[in-house]
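User: My instructor asked us to take a sequence, write out its structure as tokens, and then describe one feature of it. I'm not sure where to start. Here is the sequence I was given:
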Amino acid sequence: MERVYDGRLPKVAIVGAGVSGLRSADILTRAGAQVTIFEARDRIGGRVHQVENGGHLVDAGSNWIHGTRGNPMSRLAEKTRTVIMEPEEGSVVIDVTGKKRTEKESGELDAEFWDTIVEAFKYSDENSATIDVETSLFDYLSEVWSGKFGGDSGRTQDLKDDSRMWGQFVGSPIERQSLKFFFLEECLEGENVFVASTYQKILHKVARPALMKANVRLGHEVKHIQYRQSAEGSAVKVRLADGAEHEFDEVIVTCPLGWLKRNKSSAFTPPLPPRLSSAIDNIGYGALEKLYITFPQPFWLGTSSPSADNSQPSTDTPCFIRFYNPQYHPDPASKLSTTWNQSVVSLAHLPPPTAQPTLLFYMHGDCGTYLTRLLAPHSPHSKPYNHLLQSFAEPFYSRLPNYSPTSKICIPTSFYLTSWQTDPFAGHGSYCCFQTGLAEGDKDIEIMRSTAGLGDNGQGLWLAGEHTAPFVALGTTTGAWWSGEGVARRVARRYGLVVDEEEEEMEEAEKVDEIVENEGESVGDRLEGEVSEVSIGKSMNGTALGG
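Assistant: Let's start with the prediction itself. The structure tokens for your sequence are:
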């Protein structure tokens, strides 16, 4: 149904200046719409955000590109000369006692874990209709390994400990990862690459059209939206936190899923349709935090540490370090949870000139919640803030090669912990995930993607964001981009507007439409039976975009 206003260009409000909102604004302004973006924060980017730590720029949110084939983030990285890195294979394991496992042991555990993950992925896709909603990925893996190695064997226990690293991929404990909808963790084909020089240049590129052509209003929090009860209704009304009210023809809400969960009952009039409301409730919302610790030198690389000219390190210490849930940690809180395991990336392994003497910890679940609450009263980089983080992290990094408590190069110079769980505009979390108890996860995503028809039916309300993306891009920056673009195109079509775009963009839009149309096919049909490690999981996204 087209909505015509005697030749007048439509007025569109976009709530949120993250990647999804910025992309929507770009498409709509090129189509001629009058666009206003309301952003509650005093900055753009949403869960794509950079901070300085120890003299180095780091990503607080997204720092991966998931699947490089046909991925607009890969194209933007190339255009902006953003440095990316395909991490080397292999990692080292520090077990529950603090013992470093051999390279052979670590490699065998890693290989067995990923081989079984691939089996679980296929099993989920082929048997989703009959899998019990309460069955977790951990249940499946435990059963496979118990049958293969014995339920009480050390090998099975090691693999169970190893499997808890999955929490850093999705921001939620593996014991809560739905097996029934595990297949929704599929990514685009290609490699998962680390954005070594941060997302900063990509974000600037994404934001530039909106900043030039749209009315971007930072520090303006939207509290309520009154959308049309029917296609023949009047304007959509947007009320801000300061009480000001504005009228628009259409409103696109790109707020995170966590925000929708907490605010949907009070933020919309009329109330959202019951099926849309339940979809928002049903899909999980992860909680992933990142801790950056910078040292004078990367002591864990030993004498072959990067030199002043940023030459590449030559070391037996791999880029990835996996700490199992630590029985040796002195904090009593570590004994109350299974989520104190840490996935650590050595940023000293990044290519020049981006390498830095920094360890990046990914944490989820109770551990991340405990730390963010513990640090909430303290300002970043203050003395108590640094002391608390050093007390938390030292039991981990002191297990790395070449550590000496008396060596100056082993004493951190800077700490930074993200705090997405205490950020109301991030929805107190990172990005969507699929937890046990979920009965219709794929349909829930489709309902949110369509906003239960409220936009297409002429009622003026649309949802966009990583939680409404095509299945292969859920929970990613790519998903936010595609979702924002897709909704903007639907709005433009309703008014008969033509988007001024390049051929490359038109081809990409057609490809995304094809991806969505083929979502009902099996994994075997989509990937011709070839499922690899890089096509599964969100690779420690962090959204906070998240992840």
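For the description part of your assignment, you could build on this observation: The first helix runs from residue 19 to 30. Try explaining in your own words what that tells you about the chain.
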